[in-house]
């Protein structure tokens, strides 16, 4: 049974939108019948349709039909997209009930509220999620706009927290968090690949090396979260005097990993 009754819309059906939408469905937070996704090229939305989700090439259809609308276009598309919606929109009583959620990196609430000022009583929330939301291990921070009510925040928090961790923060902190949590998965994937390559170089089969590298990173992350110890303390516990680990740490330092 779905935990949310509202219709969820995505304007833009790219990777971040898919991570959120598919994550909500996988967690049975919403039914596929509650979701509508728009994109300029309908053929690029095939993975949504594979899940049984309705798609359209009409952004205004999402604006008109959805109750919670995720803005998931690229930042440079925001202005023409919002202008198109402005030209098509006729104010209705439903406007004040709609909740808009932006995932656009670097686009501030002030800009978002200006672009969507044609929606009376606009309720806009700026977020920065990450793609591991797709498997329920994501991180999202969010900041509310002018007309957002506490019940709106609670509803969004419930949605996003079902996909990992969600935390309200001052908007001034969102860009900094983007570097840690939003971009972070790409940094970590690079490290996993490098560790696996090292294993392969030394004779470990590729699949095994990749699995071990990923599991090691998962275990190390849980050690930080569950023990509460500083990463430097945990690192020191692995480093024996004159051992292979401290030699590797030294190489990482020489390579300016941090």
UniProtKB/TrEMBL annotation:
It is found in: Cytoplasm. GO terms for molecular function: pyrroline-5-carboxylate reductase activity. NADPH binds at residue 59. The keyword Secreted does not apply. It holds the Pfam family F420_oxidored. GO terms for cellular component: cytoplasm. One of its GO terms (biological process) is L-proline biosynthetic process. Belongs to the pyrroline-5-carboxylate reductase family. This is Pyrroline-5-carboxylate reductase. It comes from Ceratitis capitata. The gene is P5CR1.
């Amino acid at each position: 049974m779905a935990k949310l009754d509202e219709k969820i819309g995505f304007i833009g059906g790219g990777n971040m939108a898919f991570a959120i939408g598919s994550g909500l469905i996988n967690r049975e937070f919403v039914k596929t019948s509650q979701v509508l996704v728009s994109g300029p090229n309908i053929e690029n939305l095939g993975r949504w349709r594979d899940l049984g989700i309705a798609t359209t090439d009409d952004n205004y259809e999402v604006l008109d039909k959805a109750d919670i609308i995720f803005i998931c276009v690229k930042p440079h598309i925001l202005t023409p997209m919002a202008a198109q919606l402005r030209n098509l929109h006729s104010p209705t009583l439903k406007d004040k009930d709609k909740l808009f959620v932006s995932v656009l990196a670097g686009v501030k609430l002030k800009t978002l509220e200006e672009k969507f000022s044609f929606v009376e009583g606009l309720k806009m929330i700026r977020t920065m999620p990450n793609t591991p939301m797709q498997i329920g291990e994501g991180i999202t921070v969010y900041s509310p706009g002018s007309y957002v009510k506490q019940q709106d925040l609670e509803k969004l928090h419930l949605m996003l927290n079902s996909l990992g961790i969600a935390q309200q923060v001052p908007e001034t902190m969102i860009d900094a968090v983007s570097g840690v949590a939003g971009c972070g998965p790409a940094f970590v994937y690079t490290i996993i690949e490098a560790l696996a390559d090292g294993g392969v170089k030394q004779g470990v089969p590729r699949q095994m090396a990749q699995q071990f590298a990923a599991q090691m990173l998962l275990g190390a992350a849980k050690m930080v979260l569950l023990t509460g110890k500083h990463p430097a303390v945990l690192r020191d516990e692995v480093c024996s005097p004159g051992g292979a680990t401290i030699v590797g740490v030294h190489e990482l330092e020489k390579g300016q990993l941090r």
